[in-house]
Amino acid sequence: MxxxxxxxxxxxSLCFSQQQYAFDYLLEYEVRYYKDAIASINHNTRKHDKTxxxxxxxxxxxxxxxxxxxxxxxxxxxxxxxDENGISAMVNFLKTxxxxxxxxxxxxxxxxxxxxxxKHRTKDYDFFKLKDTVINEKTYHRIKLASxxxxxxxxxxxxxxxxxxxxxxxxxxxxxxHATAYEEWKLERNFPNGLIYQNYLINHDGxxxxxxxxxxxxxxxxxxxxxxxxxYTKPSKKKKxxxxxxxx
Length: 248
Hints:
Strands 1, 2, 3, 4, 5, 6, 7, 8, 9, 10, 11, 12 and 13 form a 13-stranded mixed β-sheet that branches. The chain has helices at 97-100, 150-155, 179-188; strands spanning 7-8, 18-33, 50-59, 62-71, 76-83, 87-94, 103-106, 111-113, 125-135, 138-147, 160-166, 196-202, 208-227. It has 248 residues and is mainly beta. The longest helix is centred in the C-terminal third of the chain and has 10 residues, at 179-188.
């Protein structure tokens, strides 16, 4: 199947018949995966280190949806959009359009519905508040997402995820794209507000698997538009359900 391309256009009266998702921040991260690191029994060993940029479109006041953008090739980005209330989409677009387009319309052919089949995982995982850390003379919150059952975690080779949160950005709700992490936050509200300066994964054997570090962030004004015919957040729409990944 050929990749879908974004359709960018000036907003007209048609916008009012569509689901609109507003974004007020663009976050830029550097992602690094380390060789010979195994995240879980379901992942293969990496043979080489890998580094790349990742961008997030976010809403500082709503964290049930976000868009994750990575480089596809020299001219294009790939974007995965997800609304925890029941919509996901995977599309490609020109890099120049990331800054130039105010409205992003995603064709129904690129939209799917899903439900989180792993909400029950909140019974197995929890956020643990750790001692604050200091980086370049600046103090950050530190949180760990881990299994509540150490024996099970060891037996199933489960990883733990760590978050370092910028205290000076408490105006922004936490951006938790991992399904279990989001559901745990939604249930307990036990994760502080603020942009995640860095998150990293520690394997069951104590090895660092990968890091994701904030490079920059800036204010934006963009919207993603989903046609009413494929607004699967509405109960009346027939859904093509896509399961989310589970665990760490």
